[in-house]
Amino acid sequence: MIFRSLASSSFGNAYVVEDAETRILLECGLTVKKLQRLSDFSLASFGACLVSHEHKDHAKSVGEIAARGVAVYMSPGTADALGLGGGVELVEHLEQFSVGTLDIVPFTTFHDAAEPLGFLVKSRIDGDVLAFATDTVNLRYKFPGLSILAVEANYDAQILERSERLPEKVRRRITNSHMEIGTLCEYLSQLDLSRCREIYLLHLSDAMSRENEFVRRVRAVVPKNITITVCDKEKK
Ligand SMILES: [Zn+2]
Q1: If you measure from the C-alpha of residue 89 to the centroid of ligand 1, how many angstroms do you get, rounded to a whole number?
Q2: For the domain that residue 222 is a member of, what is the CATH number?
Q3: Are 42 and 71 in contact (CB under 8 A)?
Q4: Across all residues in the chain, what is the average pLDDT?
Q5: 187 lies in which domain range?
């Protein structure tokens, strides 16, 4: 299984996951034109698009993608919040569904959105398992047998603390809806990552994160053989 980031920030998120037979899009927080340009694939080559929650930077082109015949999956709460009466596939926490050769289990995440989800994706072809979770304060699941983990690493509490000019409301929004690097490291240290080969850090805040420091901190708590990649704001 291959995971690739097309864009990863509060300006837009989109990721591609594929095994030898099935390709899906995770999030569609970019215009369709940009999605196609950054991925080098036509929209029609995606078996589905999974959307974690209704915020624009994750769901911008939902309507157009669904209208162009790609199956779009999301929670009922997300569909409601997006004002979608139909035309999308509704999926529930821990209820497995399949797209081609990929088996997918949605799971609850913790964000200031109606009914946000993360996705566990397993390939029936190569046996790889990916956990994808962004925009979540924390994670509750241990995900045995992970091959790839793509997870939000949004901000550093120490930088946030020093940003005195930040309005209290904004500060609260960040701490109540996004993953702090210390929280992530604590979580990672409890995971069995013996089969994991790649960790992708998603959605780093521009002002509240330091890329090298984040990699160093994650490196310190995971097995040495794992590749750690910070996803660029936009694929270069
Ligand atoms: Zn969000």
Answers
A1: 20
A2: 3.60.15.10
A3: no
A4: 95
A5: 2-230
